[in-house]
Design a protein that fits this description.
Elements (H helix, E strand, L loop, with lengths): L1 H5 L14 E2 L6 H4 L4 E2 L3 E6 L5 H16 L3 E5 L4 H8 L6 H6 L3 E5 L16 H14 L3 E5 L1 H4 L6 H18 L2 E7 L11 H4 L2 E10 L2 E11 L9 E6 L2 E4 L15 E2 L4 H4 L7 E2 L3 E6 L5 H14 L4 E5 L4 H9 L6 H6 L2 E5 L7 H15 L3 E5 L10 H17 L3 E7 L20 E10 L2 E11 L9 E6 L2 E4 L4 E2 L2 E2 L2 H75 L16
Parallel strand pairs: 3-7, 3-8, 4-5, 4-6, 6-7, 14-18, 14-19, 15-16, 15-17, 17-18
Antiparallel strand pairs: 1-2, 8-9, 9-10, 10-11, 12-13, 19-20, 20-21, 21-22, 23-24
Helix pairs in contact: 14-15
GO molecular function, one term: ATP binding
Enzyme class: transferase
Pfam family, one: ATPase
């Protein structure tokens, strides 16, 4: 029992088959549909005029032919083949060439209500035969019907109409072709008839709205039988290369990270980071009030990237490329050679030129074309003029995620108003999303204005907690050493005063030290003289004692010799000599 319980396959059901899907090839749509449209089933695309229903259907066919070698049939009930071909030429689609290759079949069906005589037996059998022949003639795998309202305009009887709609959808499903059916939006329902959305396996709603004089197209998947899908509204654009859907929440936080370090271009600023710079692929935000050198810091970073043979994309929302190059030359940042070599690309425009989604798509396109190592946006706060705070934050979240996935180092600047300086929060609300946050601010003193820079956060590395004063000089940005006075860190004229006081104190201390050295030398000489006198006196006493000792030794020797002579015995006397005793 224990062995069976621990067997990996024991008690586990086999994996269920997933719903087969046909990739649409439309940028972003396959992400939110998790693979594409339902294979062999009908998909309904509905929306108002000008939202791109026909273009989405044609791109679905063209991408199927070019990317997956799947022939397609386009049956149109309003526009002719020549009109459709001319309309999509601006997107780079050559429909006549695809028709010549027998990969695309375009069939126009003209429906005139005045020519239709409704009878009890009237149906769409002739259409089925015509459509079936078109499918079989090229072995089509994909079909687009544009638009269904024109097809059913000749059915005043709602009972017949609803019956024929159901029969059309069932016939397409039985045919096994992946179909897109376009329909106009009705009042109070997704379509005019209010039935197509119920018999379709997948329903995509397109919307074209105008907010604050800015047109925005949005897409929403209303339903998708047998598959999970994104449920939010997603902005989409009709670009020169086709339709691009911009998913907001489809990107997953599972991108690779790098331990490589990228310099800020300012050695003193790099030293404030524990790893001496930014992580490659990270996002950096520089915030500050007007005139705090945010653009100069951004241009310094861009020049540093180009100096190490990397490419940099610089999006300027306030200055033209010529003005930016000229202004940076005043601080010894020469961007002209990098522009000429193609290492630096400056995209300058007012934010109000396009909507947020078009700005995002433009950035995506430039990144795909240039493949830069870094992207600079100066400033992101100007995007507030294009959309509300929520839309700007959503756009920046998508941009930051996109750059991280592609391991591109991003640097943003943002203007903060005076009321937000104390809170140190950006209006866009992206300060919590970035990896590194640098704050530049005014350090106002008495009668002067100075600049200070500090690091508020840097994920993954230690960093300095000091506010460093910096100068914008003809040689670039120069960070000054921290000077601490009685009341804390001082800047500007107070810094000079404090430095003069410290220099005076240092000079006084040095002079006092020199005076003490001289006094010590004098005392040393006095002591040495005293020692010399004492040595001389000692030598005199020593000489005197030596002399006394010599004399005493001579006296003792003489005394000893005299005593020896006195105690010596007399010599013997001859006989008869008189005795001294007598």
């Amino acid at each position: 029992m224990l062995d069976n319980a621990t067997t990996p396959s024991a008690g586990r059901p086999s994996a269920l088959p997933t719903l087969p899907k046909a990739p649409s090839g439309i940028d972003g749509l396959d992400e939110i549909t998790e693979g594409g449209l339902p294979l062999g089933r009908p998909t309904l695309i509905c929306g108002g005029a000008g939202c791109g229903k026909t273009l989405m259907g044609i791109e679905f066919l063209v991408r199927g032919i070019l990317d997956h070698n799947e022939p397609g049939v386009l049956m149109t009930f309003e526009e002719s083949a020549a009109e459709l071909a001319a309309n999509v030429t601006s997107l780079g689609f050559d429909l006549p060439e695809l028709q010549a290759r027998k990969m695309l079949r375009i069939d126009q069906v003209h429906v005139d209500r005045s020519e239709i005589e409704e009878t009890g037996e009237y149906d769409l059998e002739g259409l089925f035969i015509r459509l079936g022949h078109a499918i079989d003639s090229i072995g089509a795998k994909r079909v687009v019907l544009d638009t269904i309202e024109a097809l059913f305009s000749g059915f005043p009887n709602q009972g017949v109409l609803r019956s024929e709609i159901r029969r059309l959808f069932h016939w397409l499903k039985a045919k096994g072709v992946t179909t897109i059916i376009t329909a106009e939006r009705g009042e109070g329902s997704l379509t005019r008839q209010g039935l197509e959305e119920y018999v379709s396996d997948c329903v995509i709603l397109l919307d074209n709205r105008v907010i604050d004089q800015i047109t925005t197209r949005r897409l929403r998947i209303v339903k998708y039988r047998g598959s999970t899908h994104g449920t939010n509204e997603y902005p989409y654009l009709i670009m020169e290369t086709g339709i691009s859907v911009l998913p907001v929440t489809s990107l997953q936080l599972n991108h690779e990270v790098s331990d490589e370090i990228v310099s800020s271009g300012i050695p003193a600023l790099d030293e404030m980071f524990g790893r001496r710079g930014y992580y490659k692929g990270s996002s950096v935000l520089i915030t500050g009030t007007a005139g705090t050198a945010k653009t100069t810091l951004a241009a310094t970073f861009a020049a540093e990237v180009c100096r190490h043979h990397g490419r940099c994309l610089f999006l300027a929302f306030e200055e033209s490329p010529q003005q930016l190059v000229r202004n940076m030359q005043s601080v010894s940042i020469d961007l002209a050679p990098y522009l000429a070599s193609g290492q630096l690309h400056i995209e300058a425009s007012r934010p109000t030129l396009n909507g947020l989604e078009r700005h995002l798509v433009t950035i995506h396109r430039l990144i795909k074309e240039l493949k830069p190592a870094a992207v600079v946006i100066d400033p992101i706060s100007n995007l507030i003029s294009v959309g509300n705070l929520g839309e700007v934050k959503s756009m920046l979240i998508r941009l930051i995620d996109y750059l991280k996935v592609n391991n591109i180092t991003a640097l943003f600047t943002s203007l903060i108003s005076g009321r937000n300086v104390q809170q140190e929060m950006t209006e866009e609300g992206v300060s919590s999303l970035v990896d590194t946050w640098i704050s530049v601010r005014d350090l106002e003193g008495i009668g002067e204005r100075n600049r200070g820079i500090s690091i508020l956060k840097s994920r993954g590395m230690s960093h300095s907690n000091k506010v460093r004063e910096f100068l914008v000089t003809e040689e670039g940005i120069q960070l000054l050493d921290v000077v601490i006075g009685p009341g804390g860190i001082v800047t500007g004229a107070s810094r000079l005063t404090q430095q003069l006081q410290e220099q005076a104190q240092l000079l006084a201390a040095q002079q006092e030290l020199e005076r003490k050295d001289r006094e010590l030398e004098r005392r040393r000489r006095v002591l040495e003289a005293t020692i010399g006198n004492m040595r001389t006196e000692f030598e005199s006493v020593e000489e005197e004692l030596r002399q006394i000792n010599t004399e005493e030794q001579a006296r003792q020797q003489a005394l000893a010799e005299g005593k020896a002579q006195f105690t010596q015995p007399l010599p013997p006397q001859p006989a008869g000599a008189p005795s001294h005793h007598a």
